[in-house]
Design goal:
The protein folds into two domains: 100 residues, no CATH class; 51 residues. Helices cover 50% and strands 15% of the residues. Helix 1 runs antiparallel to helix 2, helix 4 runs antiparallel to helix 5 and helix 5 packs antiparallel against helix 6. The longest helix is centred in the middle third of the chain and has 19 residues. It is globular.
């Protein structure tokens, strides 16, 4: 039986579409997966210095939050502040891999939009690219739903939102 950890490890060991697709499929099919991952309560715990509680709450969001850059970065912060540096480093590695996996799916153009697991991932990638979203439009093209972000610097970036419905 293949576990979520096996799927993540397979992707980390050999990043590519052949290992990303089964990982994303498994995450999407998990019972607690949501396209609108709400991390507000986690942010509150982190701000209050309740790092162990934040880590517990984040782990409870798994496997539905697996490969969410935001979730893994928050878990890394909670673990680091709890003195678990090795585990924090692993979570930072997973967050970076999640961002790279999104970038590997396209180039952000209308012709080759990036694909994501959840809406939050769009904003995670924009932040990683130092882009500030200004306007978001949902477009229909060739049977696909495309999230087009117009960034404050005028840059247009596109995400395939077909699976986010």
């Amino acid at each position: 039986m293949t576990t979520y950890a096996d799927l993540v490890t397979a992707y980390l060991d050999d990043p590519g579409p052949e290992t990303l697709a089964p990982l994303r499929r498994a995450v999407r099919n998990s019972a607690n997966f949501t396209i609108d991952l709400d991390l507000g309560s986690i942010d509150k715990l982190l701000a209050e210095g309740a790092y162990a509680e934040a880590a517990t709450a984040l782990r409870a969001l798994m496997p539905g939050a697996i490969f969410s850059p935001s979730a893994h970065l928050r878990l890394a912060a909670a673990l680091e502040r709890s003195g678990e540096e090795r585990s924090a480093a692993r979570e930072r590695q997973v967050a970076s891999a999640a961002l790279r996996s999104i970038r590997a799916t396209g180039d952000g153009s209308a012709e080759h939009p990036w694909t994501v697991l959840r809406v939050n991932d769009e904003y995670d990638l924009l932040r990683a690219l130092d882009k500030v979203p200004g306007r978001q439009d949902l477009l229909e093209a060739d049977g696909r739903r495309i999230d087009r972000h117009t960034c404050t610097d005028g840059t247009l970036v596109h995400f395939d939102a077909t699976t986010l419905v």
